[in-house]
Structure formats: structure tokens, C-alpha cells
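Shipment paperwork, digital attachment
Item: protein structure file
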Amino acid sequence: ILWAQSRCALGESPPPSMSVHASVVAFAEPHTLDGIAVHSDDDDDDTGPGSEGLEAGMAGAAENGGHDDAQAIGEATFGREPSSPMSPMSSTSSRPRGGQASLKQKRRTLLRRGSNKIIEPKTVQVQLEEIGSYSGFFLDFLVRCQISDVGRRRDHSMIQRILKSLVANATTGEEIGAATFARELIVREQLRHELMQGVVMESKERGTFKRTGFEAVIKWTKYVLDYKTQFLCLGTEVHNWLMAWKAQHTTETQCSESVWDRKDRLEQFFTGFHNRSRILDTNGPKAPSANRFEPRKNNYGLRWDHDQGTEWKHLKTPSSPQRRLQSLGSLQSRGDLESRQGLDRSGMLSRGGTQLLASRGGSRAQSRCGLTSRGGLAPMAGGQRPSLMGLKTSSLPELALGKGGASPNARQRLSPLNASIKGGMPGGGSAEQLPPIEQGKQRYLQECDTQHRSPMPLSFVTGHSTELNAEGKDLVDTELIAMAAMVQEMGCIKEVNLFGNALLTDKGMVQMLRQLSRYDVRSTLETLNLGRCLKAGLHTTDALVRMLKNGGALRVLNVSQVSIAACFQMPVCEAIGKHACLQNVNLCETGFHHHEVTKGCFDALLQSQSVHTLDIGWNCFNCDVFRSLGAAVVKSVSLRELRVANCAATADICPAADFVPPLSLFLEKLSHDRTLTKLDLSMNRCDFHTALILEDSLDTHQNLKELVLCNNPLGSLGIRSILRLLCRNHTGLVRYDTEGCYLGGSNDSTGLNSQTFSYTNPSGKYELQLWRPYHRALLRMLYKTMERSDCKPEEAFEKIQYKLKNAVVPWATPAKDSTGVYQLPQEGDVSLVFNVEQAIFKVFGSTFQESDFSGFLSKFYDSMRFQPGFKKVVPLLSRWCQLDGHPSAQQAYIMALSKDFNLTLPQVHTMCEASKTMVRELVWQLSPCLTGGTAAMFLNGHIFQTLSDFLWATMKQQNLLNMNVNNPTGHYLLDLANCSDYAVGERLLLLDRWEAALDRKHGRKDTSNRGNSSHIRNETFQGRNLSSTCSSVAEWKLPEHGNFEFDFISNLRPERKANVLSDELWESILVNVHASQCTPEQRILVLRSISHEFFLRSAHMRALIGYFKTERQRSEVFIIFYLRIVDMHNAKMVRVRFENVAEVTKLQERLGYATFFPFFQPENAKFELDLAVYDQRLCASMFVQLALKEKYPHNIHDYGYRRVDGTEDPMPLGVPRSWGEFSFIPREGTFRGTYMCAPEYRNLAHRKDIAKTYGYLDVEGLVDDEVAWWTGLTEPPEDVLNLLEYLISRYDNIEQPFRDIDGVNGNGQITLKELVEGLDTMNCKKFDEKKKAKGQKAVTGGRTKDQRIDAIFRYLDPGGEGSVSREEWAILGQLWKEFELSIREFVHFLVLTFGEDLSEAWAALDDDGSQELSEEEFLVAVETIGYFGPAKVVYALLDSSDDGNISVEEFGFLEKYKPSNLAESK
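Attachment content:
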């Protein structure tokens, strides 16, 4: 009802033309049913009422004060008439309670198909029409998927079409299984709806259920609206975060200079180069004749014409005049070169080179420079040539003439250019003067001539930049020496980048470093990059150290992949540490290894007050070096970014058992660091152990913003530690990179890997070796958990044993240092048990009712799990978006999130939206993490887009969906690799600890299996009993793999005066269960899901188990509802239905011997107890206590004690009295016996006392008259039952034969003689010898009539007084009640199935029409119609003639047991 109303107001108010239901489908997005694509048609004319109807319904509900579940809202919204049969909001007065109106219809259904037949695909349509109304998650999903007309009501034909389509399209085994599962879901939800319908209405009438008012509808409507709003906001924030991340991590590539700019720059350079050569030739020997020189052409569109002297002729080029002018007028005219060479927005070249004015607007007009259409310079006014940048010149090549041989005119024309060479500052205005271009260039060209090298026209060489960028140019020493000579004359240089020049050796690099060491150069040099200069040797390192010691303005130093000899490592680090300006240092792969010299290097290096970025990756460090590095990082005051990628040394491929990962020692030191903002730990073989150390160390780090862990085998466990670190709201971490970290780190059930940490439930036994950093981190995490739970150490830690050098020493609680870090010893072994039981009760004990298990789990998870804040959830989800397309990484990420985290529905929906291919995995595995209860689970299922995805995920979640948290008693078989099954196991372990805390609070006696206060019994993991590995399941760490099987028994008991279901409602529940199309197992699941909603009486329980055939099915139902029985003092009428001794033993094993103990009616209880088991010893003690209080030693019959070696103890003095004290019972051997007690010796007060003490039952005010004293038909000897059958067939009650035997003036006691005479007087032939045929033995077991009657008498005289009192004779009355109840149950079943006319029942039983039934035929027939009660008892009673057959007349004996006849007789 609630969800039907809430869905009306889902999303924004729909427009008048669209119904509210259509807006629901529109918001939920189109769904498809694997080929049945159906969408809501918003343009259909046949639309239901829109927002006006919703508002009218809400207004009407408000006028009614919110009562009747806001029924007006649903009726007005869906356009239904009040009390419509199909409306789920029909009034309670018009709806039959529990489906009573359809009992006749259900009877006909049973007649047609029998009770146990599973529906077949061909009968889907017919049977669905017979069921009636329906409700449930799956059915609602189908309706929402299949609405094709706006406002269409729910109908059966739609579901029929779906099932028919599933069956028709099913070809593979998986598809057939999905179709079968879909049918199972439908019939199961139908049954649950029918059962809950009556329970809810009756509970509302009694006032135990609150009616759903208008406020509740508004509340859930707002919840859905908030869900939609948060989903949209999260999507936007994640998108913005990803854009910002891309912008931050995308390196801005500087565009190369344009073709024309490069052409002009090279033209100038090589013009000077060739002019210099020509001038030298003219001053030397006589030049050859002109005819020997042909016009020479170069690659830049120029030619040298000897006839024209010193003039260069431009060849015809395809360039436009505008481009030509752009090249000549502005060598750096593009925006990418402005930033590279310092050209500010005003057009000034700020980093050196020629100061040229860049023309910025429109097109570069030809008139500005006087460029003609032929490419030449047009004459200006006054007959003068146009000036280039305000400089008068006749031709461009003359701008770069060399010193020697230049004509005075050329020098005169050159001087204005030299005078104009300035380096502009970023702010504009005047700039520092740079040396003329010609000075450095000429020196470079001379060196090239000397070294016989061709010149390399770099921007630095051509004079257009003060940055020597020769990265990847494959320079050789001669080229570098020439550039060093140029640096000598330049005097001003900001950057030297020689990265990747692997051919350079000490010869060239030493020359360059010496030039860079000059004062005028080092005062301007900011960046020195010598990376990958692989041939640099000792002399280069020495020159570098000298340069660093001289100081300067150097800020960035990169010597990566330059081998630094051990003798120079300390000098280099000292020089870096003492340098006043260095900020970024790269020592990657420089040869720092695990030797003594390296240990002190980092102390010297990190003494620097300026270094904030340090890269020491791809070196090899051992534990000592990492420990020294950690200490140095903690002392550093300036370090912000540290990269130690691929630095962890390893021992072997398979490390020794005592191997300590070196990186873990460094990470442990980081707990005292407060300055780092970025840490790179890539490729260091970090597994989940290292990740936990990192989580512990950075737990309170507020400055670390980015963490890089690429290519480490973290696995899901390690990723979980990183995600926990991210989601801590008090940490500063917002960016992390775990690419390539999603393999490895599996949790093993043995060895060190089993010592894992669960943030949600860290309880368990830990054996820690404190010399391991991982174990120290784990222990610190436990102390943090204790602190978070506000517990004392003695409450959280139990059984602590600390061994130091093979000696047990006292354990002292570790103290915290000044930074809040627990100081643990680093040697010795400690064994302890961490228990959150006290913490659970201390934190949650007073916040809700003790029986509210779901409330406890919700509060516990809210407190103990991580709930990512808004600032942390966006990076969390953004990382998921980045994994799209990597399924293995996504799977590990989901596994990491599936535990220790609380996620909201909008967050899960955002993840599904980001990765459509992982929707089914996300919904399945993250369902246990959802907050919001049933509402969130409901909406979470509607994220699916296809029916196959919904069915697949639902199958995976069966154990979680079928778990009843508020009645967890039952049997469980869990696959812990399944996240849903793991969640069930985790919840039950927490409930176990919660109930243990409640037991301690109320001072309850421990009745657990092994005396460990645990409510989990018979626990096995992978088929092995856990009792061999741990004393309690509370000490066992729940792994994430394997099969875990156990029984959970709750200690919650109902009050004796608690409301139970009415007999009328219970009858309708039984009818619905019996008529359901579900299999027996599915019926049990449905009953289990609603078992917490009501309590039962013993008679109800007895009737219920009669509807299940097998022992296992009866046992499951019995265990689910046994502890929901209110009148536990009458529970024996249920227990006697379990006739098989092996079946009773299984119940004792599963429920517990103490829980199943017959506190009120122990008569005829047979026991065989293993005294090595705690709760069985407890039962033995209770039997002896009863005997001592009632009639010792006669109450315990047929007792015996077998020792462990197999010998029998004769026990000549009887059962020892001392066994009444639990502590005196032996702890081995087997004790057996039968408890018997005459009615006059019962001590009800003592029985109530042990029931209250060991059974936790409410016995206040219980009197003898309320107890229905009972005896089962399997308890007495067979002859007693024969006597009873004879008496029932001739008397109306058990008192009449007692008076006849005792006589008119009897004394109220019957002797053996009187019994024999009385039976003869009655003409009872039951005990006479009968022969099958002449010459055969009598069928009396070899006993005579007197012996058989004597056995009856001894049974009726348990006290051995020699007479049977009226109270002892009443034992037959108890058997009489069992007989009558068995018959009434059988007749009641026949009436419900076939109607009041029992002749129809006979016709169904006598299928061959022979008018008689043998015992075998009768038993088969009643089982066929679905009755699984004590049919043999009924047959024995009906066969009054003892001829072995039942006739029609004998069957008519049942008429007086019909409910109508019984009511008249009453």
C-alpha cells in the first residue's frame, strides 16, 4: 500500500496530459524484457488522471486526518472506484480477511491439481487467474516494465504474456533456469502477499500495527525526490571533477614554430654562415674567375649570384605576400611561440633574440611594409625604401653579416639592429640587455669549424632564445663544446636541457658544466636537465658537485639515469641539501643502492630548506635505507612531493617466512609526517599488507592530497584499504591512482594472510609477530577501533599473551606519542582476542529495543562503516568512471566497495550510469551496502534495464533477500565468495555478539553449544568443524571465500501474554500455504520472511507442520517458529509429532540440547548425552536436578554411563546426587536414561524455575490448569495404545472406564488384579492370542495376555506403588487427547480440501472404487491429497473391526469430528 501511494508522487508533478504512473516509468528509464521492449506512451489518448487527481486525493486524505492509509490518494490517482477488487488500497471492510472468501475456490483448485504439483508453463495462465491479487518487488518490476498505455491497471494477462515469452524463447539451460526462477518469484510473492494481507489487517485492528497516514506518504515521496535530485547532482559533480582532472594531468604541448617562422630563422642563420665563409675567401688568395662559379641554390628559396656581388636573390615561392611579410616582419608571430620565447601581448620579444614588433590585427597590410605583389619592397614616399620594424636596410641578408670582411655600409646598417637587441621582462618596459646575436653565434660557428661539425640551428644557437633545449637531439661532445663556447660569450642563460643525449661523455659535459658554473651564468640558470646522458662519468659528477657548491639560481635539477658513483653520492646529496634555491630534484635511477653510504645520503639531501619535490625512483633500497629515508622525510620541513617508484628490494621470488617488505618500514615512519602533499609508490610490489600499513600511517594526515600506487598487486583487499583512507573525512586525500593494482592480494585461510582486518567487524583471534610492520599496523588499527568504540583495553582485549624471547611477560597497554601514534614494541609475539561485544552494548544498548535486530544492524553499520562525505564521494565515483571498459579492474573495485562502506542509492545509480555493462554486478554486490532499508532495495531493483539482469541479480542475492533479521533462527549455508552471502554471515556474527551482550546484561545462564556464549552452532567451514581451530566463532575471522554452514539460535522469547494470531486467520494462512503453487521449500521461505510479524500457539504450530511431507521440511518449519510459540508449556503437543528418534536428535543438535529441553513436561523423555559437550552436560545436570526435586532416584529409568574407553559403569548407587551441580558432572563419557514422573510428584514450581533460568521463558503467573499435559503416541508401549483404541471406540472420556474398573464404591485406586478383571468384564479381546493360521505362532511377540496387561499396569504406575491412582490413570487421558487431536486435524484437513461432505473425500481416497481401503492404500491416498500428519493413528482408530481394512461405514465415524458437529456438541 505504501509503495503504491509513494510511486504516485515520484519525480516532479507530471503535466496534465500525462498520468502520474507514466511519469514513474519515464523517470525509471525504459526497460526491456529481453526482446519484449515496452515503453510508456505519453501521447496515448487513454490516459489516467494526472497531477490534479493526486492533489485531490491528498486533499481528501488530509480532511480525513490521514487515516485509512490515505486511501483517497490511491483511488483519486489511479482513477479506481472505491473498494475496487483490483485495487491494492481497498478498504478493510470490503476485503475478506486472509482470503476466506476464496476458500471454496481453493478447494476446487486442490481437487483439480493436487497439493504438491509444480506449475507447468502451459498452465501459467489458468493458475495465475485463480490466485487473485498480487504484490511484490518482482511483480512491481514487471508492471513498471510492461506499461504500454499510460495509466493501465495491473492485470494478469500482462504477466501471462511475460511468462509465455520467457518459456517460448528459452533455449539454453540458463534461459530455462531463468524462466523457472521467474515463475517461482511470482508465485512466492503472491503467497507472501496473501499471507501478509490478513496479518496486517488483524494487527491493525488490534492496534499493534500503525496505520499508514498521510505523513508517511509525504515522507517517502520526498525520499524519492531527494534520490532523483542527488543522482542528478552527483552526475554533474563527477563530470566536472573528471574534466578538472584531465586538465590537470594533460601536459600542454607547445606547438612548434610555424613553417614560415622556421624558414626565416634558418634563412638568417645560414645566410650569416655562408656570408662569413665568402668574406674570408675574398680576403685571401685570389678568387677564381667568375665563369667557374655557377649560381648556387640552397634549400631555403635563396641563390647566390656571383655577378651581383653580395646580394642574395629570392627565388619565386608559392607563399602569399601576406605570409612572406609575416615571416620577414615578425619571426615570432604566433601565440604558441609567444609563450615559448617570451613575446608578450604587446608584441615585444622578452627572452632575447631580435627585438621585433609583431603586427597583431587584421591582415598584415602590404602598405604597412610597402610590399609589392612581386615580393619585393615597393618604394615609399620620398623615394626611400620601407623600413622593416623601423630599421632602414637595403636587404635582409645583410642583417646577419659576420665581423670579418663586412663592408662599412653593412656594419652601419647592422648597428641599429644590434642596438635594438633587448630582452623584455614579462611586465613590459625596459629589459635587460642580451649580448648581440653575432657574438655567441660567431663563436659557435668557429667551434663548429674547428670540430669539423655541421652547425645545428637550435633556437638558442640562432639567438632567438636564452634556453638551450637540445632534448633528444643526439648531440656529441664536439657539438656540446661548441655550444659551451657560445654560453661563454652569452653570459645569460635560463635553461639547459640535454635530456636523452646518450652520446655525450665527460669531454663535452665537463666543458658545459664549467661554463654554467660561471657567476654570470649560474645567477640566471634556473633549470638543468641532464637526464639519460648515459655516458656521463665521474668527471661530470665532480663538475656538477662543484657547480652546486657555488650556489646560484638553479631551481630544477634532473640527473635521472645518470650513474652516480658511490663515492660521489654523498657529495651530490650534500651539495643539493646546502643549495639555497633548488626546489625540484630528480635522482631517478642514479645508482643509489642498499649500502651504508646511501643511508646517510637522504639525511643530507633533505636538510634542504627549499627542495619540495624529490624523485628517487628506480633505485634499489633495503630495509635500512627505507627506514633512514622515512626518518629523513619526517624531519624535512620543505618536502611536498616524493616519488619512490620501483625502489623496494626483494629477497627471492618466494620470500622467506621472516622476510619484511622494505617499503613497509618507510610507510610506518610516515605516521609522523605532516608535510607531504603527493606520494608516488608505483611498482613497489605493495600488496594488501602494505596497503593496511599505509592506511594506518596516513590515517590522520591532513595535507596529503594525491597518492599514486600504479602497478602494485593490491587486489580487492588492498584497494579497500585505500578507499577507506580516501573516505575518511578528516584526511586530505582526494586524488589517487591505482591503475594496474586490481590483481593479487587474495585472502588465504591459513598462514599470515588470514590475519586480515575488517573495519566493520574486527572481532576475532589474532596471533601477531610484532617484528612485522604489518602486524604492528594491524594491532594499532585494533586500538583505534577500541578508541572509536569508547571502550577500555580490558573490555576490548581478551586472553592477551605476550612472549618475548620465549618467555611470557606481562603486556602493557601501549601509550601514544606526541603525534597520537601508538608506540608498540617491535619484537616478540602477542596472541589476543579482540571482542566488540562490550563496545556494541555500550554504544547501542540504550538506543532501541533489544529485540529490534534490524534497528541494531542499521545503527551499527551507520557507526562502524564508512559513509563517504560529499568531498570524498566525488573522487570515489570519478575513479569508477575512469575504469569503464576494464572489467577486471571494475570487479576488484566493486569487491573492495562491497564491504566496510555504506553507500546511498544515488551513488550506486551514478556508478551504474557510468558503466552500463556492469549494472548487474553493481546492483548485486553493492546491495548489502545500501542505506535506506527496504525503500532503497526496492528502487535499487529498478535500475535494471532488462528482465534477465533483474533475475540474474536476484538469484545471486537469494540468501540475503530471504534472511529475516528479526527472526534469524535457522540453518544457513553460505558461499562467502558471494558478497550477498558474506553480508548474511557478517550480520549473523554481529547479532551473535549483540545477543551475547544482552545475555550478560540480563545475567542469563550460558546454554551455548560449547559454553562460549555463542548463538551459532554446528559451524563448519569448507566441511571442517571450526571447533578444532577456535574455541568460539567469535574468535574466527570471516574469510571472503569458501562455504560456511551453521545454525543460528536466538535467545529472544515472547512474553506469555503476547498477542497471537486468531484461529480464523491461522486457518486461512494454512489454506493459502496449502493451495499455493510454490514448492514446499518456497513455502518455507515465504513463512520465514514473515515469521517475525506474529506469534503462535502450540496448536498452530502442530497444524502447520502437518502440511509438510519430509522430515527435513518439518524440521525447518519447526525451528523457524519454535521460539515464537507463546505457550511453551504446551509445546509437547508439537514435539510428539516427531516420532523418529533420529529426527528428534537432529532437532536437539540444531536448536541446542538446552533450548530443546522439555522444561515443563519431561515425562517419557529419552536421552543419550555426550558429556564432553557443554550443553549436553548442562542437560544431564537439569535431569538430575528435576529428579532430586520430584522423586529421586525413581524418576530416572534405564540409566547408564559409558566411559570413553567403552566400558560401562554399573552405578550401583544410582545416578550420583552430585550431578545436580554442573561442575561435578564428568567431562567425558555418555550418560543415557529415560525420565518418568507420576503426576502426583510433579514439581511445577521447580520446572518453571529451570525454564526461566535455562530457557529464558516468561513463566510469571503460570498455573497447573494452563498446562495441557500431553503424551505422545510413540512414548507408551504398543499395548497401551491398543487399550486406548479399544476405550475410545466405546467410551466418551477416560474417566468412565476408570469408574467401571474401580467399581461403584471403589477407593480411587486400581490394582493389577482389578485391571485384569475389568478388561474381562468389558469383553476386551485386544490382548488375546491370535494365530495367523493353524500351526503358526501367535502374533503377540511371544508374550501371554497376562504379561501384556502387566506391562500396561507398570507403565500406568511409574512410581511403583502397586496401584494406579486417578491421576496416574489420567496419562491415558493425555493419550486420548492426542488421539482425538490427530483425528480432528485429519477431518479438518478433509473439510478444507473437499468441503463439508466427507463422501467427496472418500471418493478421492478410494480411487479404485472398491469401497474399502487397506492400510497401505490409505497411507498412499492421504499423502497424495497432501496430508502428512499421523495417518497411521487415524487408520487404527477407523479400523474398529481389526480386519485390516476400512469400509465406508467405518469411515463415517469421522462425521462426529467435523468442526460443525464439534461446535454443536460444545
